[in-house]
């Protein structure tokens, strides 16, 4: 009887030990910002806000022909803007290549071509996950003061 109890105690200990050493104790390595930007798929406009107010319908810079653009980034510092279903100018090419790089310790994303009318080539990175990219940019309209706009892209 003592042998059975001892054997059961050993089995229980082994079961507890094997559960405590599961793979969940070894989380997958964190992806770098470059990996999150370039290897998780294409990015599409989701929304834009200024001072907490939705400005997604503001035209410009967020005209329907710009909001349907599809962005892709490669790890090597190149990318592409696909004009999507509607072009702002029918004479525009369907695809516009660009280059990109990180600035200021990966807090600023520089893209060689502005993404929106009145915008610049530099965006402050607000957040980046495998499904969402939030960028902040100073927008300078043709009339009126410049405003800071947060633009959200998703997969």
Helical content stands at 10-25%
Helix/strand order, N-terminal first: HHEEHEEEEEEE
Under CATH, the homologous superfamily reads Domain of unknown function DUF4822
Q: At CATH's second level, what is the architecture?
A: Beta Barrel
Q: Which fold name corresponds to the CATH topology?
A: Lipocalin
With strands numbered from the N-terminus, the spatial order across the biggest sheet is: 1-3-4-5-6-7-8-9
Compact overview of the structure:
Helices cover 19% and strands 35% of the residues.
Structural key phrases:
155 residues; alpha+beta; Lipocalin; eight-stranded antiparallel beta barrel; 3 helices; 35% strand
Structure explained in plain terms:
This protein is an alpha+beta fold. Helix content is 19%, strand content 35%. The protein has one domain (28-154): Beta Barrel (Lipocalin), CATH 2.40.128.540. It has 3 helices and 9 strands. Strand 8 (132-139) and strand 9 form a beta hairpin. The mean pLDDT is 87.
Write the layout of secondary structure elements.
Layout: H1 2-20, H2 33-38, E1 43-50, E2 53-54, H3 64-67, E3 70-73, E4 78-82, E5 95-103, E6 108-111, E7 122-128, E8 132-139, E9 147-154
Antiparallel strand pairs: 1-2, 1-3, 1-9, 3-4, 4-5, 5-6, 6-7, 7-8, 8-9
